[in-house]
Specification:
heterodimer; A: mainly alpha; B: ABC transporter involved in vitamin B12 uptake, BtuC; two-stranded antiparallel sheet; 72% helix; 3% strand; transmembrane (chain B); Urea ABC transporter permease subunit UrtB (chain B); transmembrane helix (chain B); cell membrane (chain B); BCAA_transport_permease (chain B)
Chain lengths: 354, 300
């Protein structure tokens, strides 16, 4: 266990020192991937540990990103109306935009609004014992609702173009490489903190109830727990993580549009966790980084092949690697250790291993 | 008066289109409990099949016969859809019956691949299918014009439904299918080959998607993403109607069609979609199992 902990520390320190050995371009990419890794952590919590497959995390990611983007937009507009509002003929700032001129409110909202929406949706569905694939399909319908709304309300949200053209964050120029490095390091720290939080959660009593809900919800109910509150809690926590990731994403990438919260991005988020290993938190991080590195490599070189490759990846992971890369590695490790023990001491009982 | 008739007709028409798409899902999802995200791409396959048949007729067949190309296109779309579904069941879904969430992800992968394949073969821009001349005009009732194209779809969905009902209720194969969906292990121990039934059911559901694709060609140009446009709606309709109930799917499709048309009349196309989905989620608060659901005493 201690060896494992040391490994995690080394991993995060290596990430933190990224600016030392990555070019500016690679660092920007890596920063983006680490934001996605935070989303994947949240998905791992609800899918791998609790058995809720959400196809709607793009919405939470997007909402978080929009909250911060609204602040950035107002800061860029410098007291005037944001540019896209002038183009759509809006004369005064809509009331709900006003509080977002405060950065603390905006960033707080980027966590709380996704969490609140997830809590409402989760409460309404989990209370009625809508679960499994039905929940997944409903969460997909929620994506359609939000994307349609964001595209339609062009004068409030910037429509299909989304929000972009930011200049500063808290007065610091977003174009400066130093600011970008600082944001990258902040992302690594937040990713590490989210990882620690998720690991603590899964090792706690609550975490064990969550796994129990996954394996036999009714048994948990018969034992006197209320699965609904546990599910709502973990679902909103995971939405808050997605919102946080959205904030970090929009700060580093400088753009958020409805296309980034649509059905396809949402389901890609699930793939990150699936590739890394849905039952493993570190796997989710690795999965997000690996899949997105592959995506940026393939879609630069062969844009047509990428969607075929992505499709094959879904099929291969589901059919041959149901526990992802980490799962495959673990079972390989287990086999090797078993073989070692058999070869070493003949009297070591096999039952101890299993 | 004309407005009311037009709205009513549009509602029924939209409902019939949605029903045609949801009917196949009602079998694969409702009866067999398999989420096939590639269902939309089977619709696309049916639409492109119709396109190819139409092209072939306009090039190789005497012009007088062009108007009758649907006689070839409809069965061929069904067969192509059914074939794709059969292959998918045999190669992928068969292994995932106990892991529904995984079959959702794997078939999503299939849908991405099929879309890209279609783009590579037919090109990225949408293609238009010329409808036969006899579908061009419409029927006038009390000042409201009911286009023949829409009436054609309503007729097609009615025929599909009646045929499906007769198949499930009156033939031995259909009864076996219902037996398997009601109690798989009991059916299996009474000598029903569940493997065969699974493959057939999946092929029929996918074939219906092919027919739906064929019908969509009369409404406008078709492209590789035509399936994704309707697939979320179709899944919601099956959930709304109640899993395992074909009649529920019919009611689900008609009410979504009606509500969608009315909402569109009052608030525009994009808000209509929002209103419909919010209404469905709200409705599920009162009846989580859908409009008409098979009563069961089983817990899970």
């Amino acid at each position: 266990m201690d060896k494992k902990k040391l490994g995690y520390w080394l991993f995060f320190i290596a990430l933190f020192l990224g600016p030392l050995y990555l070019t500016e371009f690679r660092l920007a990419l890596m920063g983006k991937f680490l934001c996605f890794a935070i989303v994947a952590l949240g998905i791992c919590l609800i899918w791998g540990y609790t058995g809720i497959l959400s196809l709607g995390h793009g919405v939470y990611f997007g909402l978080g990103a929009y909250c911060t983007a609204m602040y950035l937009k107002l800061e860029a507009a410098n007291g005037q109306l944001p540019d896209f509002m002038e183009w759509s003929g809006v004369s005064a700032l809509p009331a709900f935009w006003v509080p977002f001129s405060n950065p603390i409110f905006a960033i707080g909202a980027s966590l709380l609004i996704p969490a609140l929406i997830a809590a409402i949706l989760g409460f309404l569905t989990f209370k009625n014992r809508i679960k499994g694939v039905y929940f997944s399909l409903i969460s997909q319908a929620v994506v359609v609702v939000f994307v349609t709304l964001f595209v339609a309300k062009q004068d409030w949200t910037g429509g299909t173009n989304g929000l972009t053209n930011f200049t500063t964050f808290l007065g610091f120029s977003l174009a400066s490489p130093l600011v970008q490095i600082a944001l990258y390091m902040m992302t690594v720290i937040i990713l590490g903190a989210s990882f620690a939080l998720a690991a603590a959660l899964t090792n706690s009593r609550v975490g064990r109830v969550l796994s129990a809900v996954r394996d036999g919800e009714n048994r948990v109910r018969f034992l006197g727990f209320n699965p609904t509150s546990y599910k709502v809690f973990v679902y909103s926590l995971s939405a808050a993580l997605a919102g946080l990731a959205g904030t970090l994403f929009v700060l580093q990438v400088g753009l958020i549009s409805p296309a980034m919260m649509g059905i396809i991005p949402s389901i890609e988020m699930v793939l990150w966790a699936a590739v890394g290993g849905r039952h493993s938190l570190i796997g989710a991080i690795l999965g997000a980084v690996i899949v997105n590195s592959a995506k940026s490599f393939f879609s630069e070189a062969y844009p047509d092949i990428w969607s075929i490759f992505l499709g094959l990846l879904f099929i291969i992971v589901v059919m041959f690697l149901p526990n992802g890369i980490v799962g495959a590695f673990e079972s390989w490790n287990e086999k090797r250790e078993k073989a070692k023990r058999k070869g070493g001491t003949a009297d070591a009982a096999d039952s101890v291993v299993s | 008066m004309a407005v009311v008739i037009t709205q009513l007709f549009n509602g029924i028409s939209l409902g019939s289109i949605l029903l045609l798409i949801a009917l196949g899902l009602a079998i694969t999802f409702g009866l067999m409990n398999v989420i096939n995200m590639a269902h939309g791409e089977f619709i696309m396959a049916g639409a492109y099949t119709t396109y190819v048949v139409q092209q072939a007729f306009s090039h190789y067949v005497p012009a007088a016969l062009f108007n009758y190309y649907y006689i070839v296109a409809i069965p061929l779309s069904f067969l192509i859809g059914a074939l794709l579904g059969f292959v998918l069941e045999k190669t992928l879904i068969r292994f995932l019956y106990h892991r529904p969430l995984d079959s959702l992800l794997a078939t999503w992968g299939v849908s991405l691949i099929l879309q890209q394949v279609a783009r590579s073969i037919f090109g990225a821009p949408n293609v238009a299918v010329t409808a036969p001349a006899w579908l061009d005009s419409g029927l006038t009732i009390a000042g409201a014009v009911l286009p023949y194209k829409r009436l054609f779809i309503i007729a097609l969905v009615t025929i599909c439904m009646v045929t499906l009902y007769l198949y499930l209720d009156k033939t031995a194969a259909g009864r076996k299918m219902r037996a398997v969906t009601m109690n798989r292990s009991m059916a299996s121990s009474l000598g029903v080959s569940t493997k065969k039934v699974d493959a057939t059911a999946f092929a029929i559901g996918s074939g219906l998607a092919g027919i739906a694709g064929c019908a969509l060609t009369v409404l406008g140009p078709i492209g590789s993403t035509i399936g994704t446009y309707y697939i979320v709606d179709a899944f919601m309709i099956v959930i709304l109607g109640g899993i395992g109930s074909l009649i529920g799917t019919v009611f689900g499709a008609l009410s979504v069609g009606m509500l969608g048309t009315v909402a569109e009349f009052w608030s525009g196309a994009s808000m209509a979609k929002v209103i419909v989905f919010v209404a469905i989620i709200a409705f599920l608060q009162f009846k989580p199992a859908g409009l008409l659901s098979a009563r069961t005493r089983s817990l899970e």
